[in-house]
Amino acid sequence: MTKEKPKGFFEWVSDKAIDFAGSSIGFSLATLVVLIWLATGPIFHYSEKWQLIINSGTGIVTFLMVFLIQRAQTKDMEALQLKLDELLAHSGADPDLVRIDKHVSEGTLHDARERFKTKK
After folding, report:
1. pTM recorded for the entire structure
2. Which domain does 51 fall in, by range?
3. What is the pLDDT of residues 50-101, one digit of tens each?
4. Cα 20 to the center of its chain, rounded Å
5. Is 76 exposed, middle or buried (0-12, 13-18, 19+ CB in 10 A)?
6. Which helix H or strand E contains 27, and what residues bound it?
7. One-character DSSP codes across 42-83
8. Spatial distance between the Cα atoms of 114 and 102, rounded to a whole number of angstroms
């Protein structure tokens, strides 16, 4: 196994945020925030400012979560791809198929898929 490199600060923070966002505690906290916001509606007479608070908060959280989710999916896909590459490298698989990755064109992927179908 390769030696794991130390994580940078932002990588560490994003890993913690991903873990928290996907946890029961994270979901419970988000639900609690919405319930508190709803409960304060009558106090603020359901004003535009009251609505703006939740709209702004959810917009910011959504914006940041898009990047966190994309980072997590990219990291997972790269790890999965490396595992598959390792398995294929020792299986006698077609070297052209083993080397295909996300940077090839859709046409190349289509051609490879057609060649694979004819081998079956």
Report:
1. 0.69
2. 9-68
3. 999 999 999 999 999 999 999 999 989 888 988 887 888 788 777 777 677 7
4. 13
5. exposed
6. helix 24-39
7. TTTTT-HHHHHHHHHHHHHHHHHHHHHHHHHHHHHHHHHHHH
8. 18
Residues in the chain: 120
Six token digits for residue 113: 């898929």
Using the CB atoms, write b or e for 17-46: b if 16+ within 10 Å.
bbeebeeeeeeeeeeeeeeebeeeeeeeee
Decide if 39 is inside a domain.
yes
- At position 11, the amino acid (one-letter code) is E
Backbone angles phi, psi at 90, to 5 degrees: -105, 10
- Domain assignment present for residue 19? The answer is yes
Nearest-10 crossing angle of helices 24-39, 9-21: 70
Distances, alpha carbon 3 to alpha carbons 6, 13, 86, in Å: 9, 21, 17
Single-letter amino acid, residue 26: G
Domains in the chain: how many in total?
A: 1
